[in-house]
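Appendix B, Record 12. Input sequence as logged:
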Amino acid sequence: MHEVDPTSQSNYLQIVTKHITFDWTVDFDNKIITGSATHDFIAKVDEVSEFRLGPKHEVMGSALHVPLPRTLSAGSSTVVEITYRTTANGIALQFLEKEQTQGKTFPFLFSQCQPIHARDLAPVQDTPSVKITYSASVRSVLPVLLSARRISPPSDGPAHDGKIIGKDEVVYTYDQPTPIPSYLLAIAAGNLQYQPFQVPDGKQWKSGVWSEPELMDSSFWEFSRDTTRILPGPINLGVYDLLVLPPSFPYGGMENPCLTFVTPTLLAGDRSLTDVVIHELTHSWFGNGVTHSHASHFWLNEGWTTYVERVLLQIIHSPAHRGLSSVIGHKGLLDALAFFEDKPKYQKLVIDFDYGENPDSAYSRVPYDKGANFLLQIERTLGGLEVFLPYVKDYIATYMGHSITTTTWKNHLYAYFQKNGSEGQIEALNSIDWDAWLHHSGLRLPVEMEYDLTLANPANELADRWYESRHTTDISKLDFKGSDLDSLDANQRAVFLERLESYEESLPAGHLFHFDKLYGFSKTLSAEIRFRFYTLILKSQAAMHFVQGAANWVIGADDTGVIKGRMKFCRPVFRAMFKVNLDLAISTFKQARTQFHPIAQSLIAQDLGLDLAKLRVSG
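Logged structural output:
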């Protein structure tokens, strides 16, 4: 296992950036950002003569060697200003044409720097082992948002400081005084409006939502009730805002400080998906606060966040809600483990990446749900939440602001219970098969987990009834009706579809046609339900009937009119289409490739066995 970040070429063990001052201009015409990054460096060892980012590499980018004005000794500092411009074909930035936005009037820009793409946005030591503060001055003809506290113009003032949007240049200034890893650098620019949420009495922070004007009413309604209700006590920097991005955003959410990015697929119209906000908020502790040292330990971010998210579901709602989330996550985990059957090292929690290996290739539910289940198993082994939660609080307090490895976390866990626990609890920790959880691959978890099935059981029972009816040849004798789903919420309906997909034998085509006629899943506006329906149906005898509908849906060539850029949806649907109609899957992707985010483009092309570089050359 690497001691040094295998995905970075920087010499961060010798010299580190403490603060960066950005001076940027957003150039929408040329789809680039120009400006400068001024680094405040501190040497960690003696005789440092250069700031180095290493030679050109296919994954890790081009080298930047900066000879320092003098040789530095440990603890001494220097300042280096780097003038640069981004490229039009980088991964971190996606410039959207106005036609790709909701309003179709102005272009749009947003970034996605995780896991190693901040180097596309700025010359930085792009490793989570280094945490920086930053300040920025950004000139733009469209409103600008950053992952920092806005200094001017005020968020709650006139949009674009009262100037003409799309014509007049405004300078936006921001400050981020809390040290963050470079993957949390974030920028968005477009025709954006702000609406504040009602903050509970006595709270000194503020919260609100940003979106294009056309989405503001639905965005505010979706998030205004629950966001401030679930926010913890003091909020870092006194602000927690949400930004609803255009549909090409490849993730459900991104925990950028002060400004969580979210996908518009969360706008379900029933507030059923707002628990994603709990996940992103929890990153304030795990990821943003206690950070993985490099990609091999990514589970320390996502496994801990997913585990605590489910604990909060239990506290806010009930143990049954924690159980239901675990059931849904377990299905996603099993799918991910099966997908990586030919790449077993990606089934591990701690991945021994080769030098220069792209961590995007390993992205899946494994660090989220294998990690969360591992922590759940530790919780249960030690005696439950009342024993484990005090440890969690101590873990956060001990490592807040630091970047750590799995070994550091494990050593702290043992040290805590040696000091505050009993011999029996140390023996309990020793009973855990650490290697199996952390370093072994496989299609199942090391321990068969049990969850609270109170909310899952009604969905499972309905699925079982459908499965038991598969030998009934006369469809008119099936005892099902559209109202079967009335008592199931959105998450339970997801469990219902996943249960049907999990059976070794799929339902006959006639059953599935009747199934869709009753429940209308092929027309639902819920992306969570629609994608599960397609992954179910495209494994069945009815696949050829629905595959064109799936193709139209995933690229927005249907009544939704919106591309499904979130990789949770687009990648499984393209893979399922590929097994049914290879030519349709490939032609559909080629038709809409540029509508997807560069990260999604790369991974979908990989899933379909295509050479993305050649596709870009051919247009």
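The chain has a mean pLDDT of 94.
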